[in-house]
Design a protein that fits this description.
483 residues, Arc Repressor Mutant, subunit A, globular, five-stranded parallel sheet, FAD/NAD(P)-binding domain, SoxA_A3, 18 helices, seven-stranded mixed sheet, alpha/beta, oxidoreductase activity
C-alpha cells in the first residue's frame, strides 16, 4: 500500500538472465533473509505444502534482532523480547524448509534466477515466488570524527553483544531512538552501564497528537518508559538536546566527544562512542531488481511500494519485515506470515475465504504493532545536523568525500544522485551508498531546496554485494541482447 504523502519511484527491471544450466535448485518459494519475517513466512509456507529455500548471510537463523539466539538467550541480560525469537527458530525444523546459511544473495534477475555465493562458490536457485525479508540497516550518523577508531554504531555493538557476549565498557551513547535506550539497559543489566547518554532533541510536541493512535501499542510505550526508568535508576547521566556533535582522537586510544546543550559546550572522554539515530529499510536488492519504491516522509527513507499482502510491483516478488518499512520484530513476524498466506493462495493451496480467515488475527497483531510507529517517528526525527553535516565531515567513507566537496559539486551544478556519483564517486565504493546515500541526498536537498522525495534514491546495480570475478565467471552470466 502507498503510505500517505509517499512518492513513487521505480526502475526498469534488469535485462539480464541466468545461465542455461541443468541441475539448478528449483523451489516453490525462495526467501532472502532469516529474520522474524523470513522465518515466520517459511514455516507458514512449508505447512501449506510449499518447498521453501531460506537464504541468509549468517551462520544461524535469527536476523539482526534475534542474532545467535540459540546461545545468547541463555545469557539473560538481552531481555525477554529477544528470547521470544526461539519459537521462530524451532519453526524452521520442517522437512520442506531448506536453510542455506552463509549465503550472500548478490543478484536476482528478471527470470527469478537468484544468484548467491557461499565460501567462494556461486549458486543459482530458481523459484516460482520470491520473498525479500532483508530487514533494516542502521541510519548513518555522520558528524566530524564519526570515522575515527572507537566510534561505531550502537547496533554494531549490540551485534557483538549477541554474537560473542562482548559488552561495551564505559561507553558513551549518542543519538536518539528506542534502540539507544535498549542498548543502555542491556549494558546496565550485564553489569557495565554506559558512562553517559548524549541525546539529540526529542520532539514530543510534534508527537503528542499521534499519541491516541498509539494506544493499541501501549505495551510497547510502557516498555520504553521502563527502559528509561532503568537508566535513571542506574544513575547514568543524560545530556538532552545535544547539537553540534564532534569527536576527536586523544592520547591512549581515547575519543573526546564534544557537543552543545542549553548549558553550553560539553566534553566527555571514553574509549568507545556508540551512535544511533534509528534504522531505515535495506533496499539495495529490491532496487536492483527494479521494484517500484516510495519515499516515506515519516520515516525519512525510501521503501518498496507494496500491497496489503506485501506484494511488490513485480507480480511474484513479495517484501516483508523492516525491508518494506520499519515496524519492528512483531510487525515483521505478522507481515511474513501474511505474505506466505497470500503466496499459498496464489499457488492454489488456499481459497480466498480461508486466506482471509487466517489473515484476520495476523492483521490485528500487525495493526497493534504498527500503531506506535507514527508517534515514534514524530518523536525521534533525524536532526538537520546529521542530514546535512558540517563541511569537514567525511560523508562517503569508501571514497573519503567530505561534505565540503559535495557542497562544492552542488555549486557547480551536480544537483542529482547520478551527477554526484559521476563527479565525486559517492556511492561507488564497496558499500554502494549504504553509508552515504542518505547524507548525499540531504545535502542536495539543503542546497536546492527540494524535498528528498524529488531527489530519488541512487540507482542500485548488481552485484549488490562485493563478489570476486571468479564467482561471477563461474556462472557464465551474460546480458540479454539489445539490453
Amino acid at each position: 500500500m502507498h503510505g500517505r504523502g509517499a512518492r513513487r519511484h521505480g526502475y526498469p527491471p534488469p535485462a539480464w538472465r541466468a545461465p542455461d544450466r541443468e541441475g539448478l535448485m528449483t523451489v516453490d518459494l525462495a526467501i532472502i533473509g532469516a529474520g522474524p519475517a523470513g522465518m515466520a513466512a517459511a514455516r507458514v509456507a512449508a505447512e501449506g505444502g510449499l518447498r521453501v529455500t531460506l537464504l541468509d548471510e549468517q551462520n544461524r537463523p535469527g536476523g539482526q534482532i534475534y542474532r545467535n539466539i540459540a546461545t545468547a538467550a541463555e545469557w539473560g541480560w538481552l531481555g525477554n523480547d529477544y528470547a521470544r525469537g526461539v519459537d521462530l527458530i524451532h519453526g524452521l525444523n520442517h522437512q520442506l524448509i531448506t536453510h542455506q546459511p552463509r549465503a550472500t544473495v548478490w543478484r536476482i534477475d528478471s527470470d527469478q534466477g537468484i544468484i548467491w555465493s557461499r565460501d567462494g562458490q556461486s549458486h543459482v536457485t530458481t523459484a516460482a515466488q520470491i520473498l525479500l525479508a532483508t530487514g533494516a540497516q542502521e541510519r548513518p550518523v555522520p558528524f566530524p570524527g564519526w570515522t575515527l577508531p572507537g566510534v561505531m554504531p550502537a547496533g554494531a555493538a549490540q551485534v557483538l553483544m549477541k554474537q560473542s557476549g562482548m559488552v561495551p565498557c564505559d561507553a558513551i551513547l549518542a543519538g536518539a531512538g528506542p534502540l539507544l535506550y535498549l542498548v543502555a539497559a542491556q549494558m546496565i543489566e550485564a553489569g557495565s552501564p554506559p558512562q553517559a547518554l548524549i541525546e539529540t532533541d526529542v520532539d514530543l510536541l510534534r508527537a503528542l497528537p499521534r499519541l491516541p493512535r498509539a494506544v493499541p501499542g501501549a505495551k510497547t510505550l510502557a516498555k520504553g518508559l521502563g527502559l528509561i526508568r532503568r537508566i535513571r535508576a542506574a544513575g547514568v547521566p543524560r545530556y538532552r538536546g545535544a547539537k553540534d556533535l564532534r569527536a576527536a582522537q586523544v592520547q591512549d586510544g581515547q575519543v573526546a566527544v564534544s557537543f552543545s546543550t542549553r548549558r553550553g559546550r560539553q566534553k566527555l572522554t571514553s574509549s568507545l562512542l556508540l551512535t544511533h539515530l534509528g534504522v531505515i529499510p535495506q533496499t539495495h536488492l529490491a532496487r536492483a531488481m527494479g521494484l517500484r519504491h516510495v519515499y516515506d516522509h515519516a520515516q525519512q527513507a525510501w521503501r518498496p511500494s507494496l500491497s496489503r499482502w506485501g506484494q511488490s510491483s513485480i507480480e511474484n516478488v513479495f517484501v516483508a519485515g523492516d525491508g518494506g518499512g520499519i515496524g519492528g520484530a512483531d510487525a515483521a513476524r505478522a507481515q511474513g506470515a501474511l505474505a506466505a498466506i497470500e503466496i499459498l493462495h496464489r499457488a492454489g493451496r488456499l481459497d480466498a475465504a480461508e486466506r482471509d480467515h487466517r489473515a484476520r488475527p495476523l492483521r490485528r497483531s500487525l495493526s497493534r504493532s504498527l500503531s506506535v510507529r507514527p508517534f515514534l517517528d514524530a518523536a525521534y526525527p533525524v536532526p538537520p545536523d546529521f542530514l546535512a553535516p558540517a563541511d569537514e565531515t567525511i560523508v562517503c567513507r569508501c571514497e573519503e568525500v567530505t561534505a565540503r566537496a559535495i557542497r562544492d559539486a552542488l555549486a557547480d551544478g551536480a544537483h542529482g544522485m547520478r551527477l554526484m556519483r559521476t563527479t565525486l564517486r559517492t556511492g561507488m565504493g564497496p558499500c554502494q551508498g549504504r553509508m552515504c546515500e542518505a547524507t548525499v541526498s540531504g545535502l542536495i536537498a539543503e542546497a536546492t531546496g527540494r524535498d528528498p522525495s524529488m531527489i530519488g534514491p541512487g540507482r542500485a546495480r548488481s552485484p549488490v554485494k562485493p563478489v570476486t570475478l571468479a564467482e561471477i565467471a563461474s556462472l557464465g552470466l551474460h546480458p540479454e541482447e539489445n539490453s
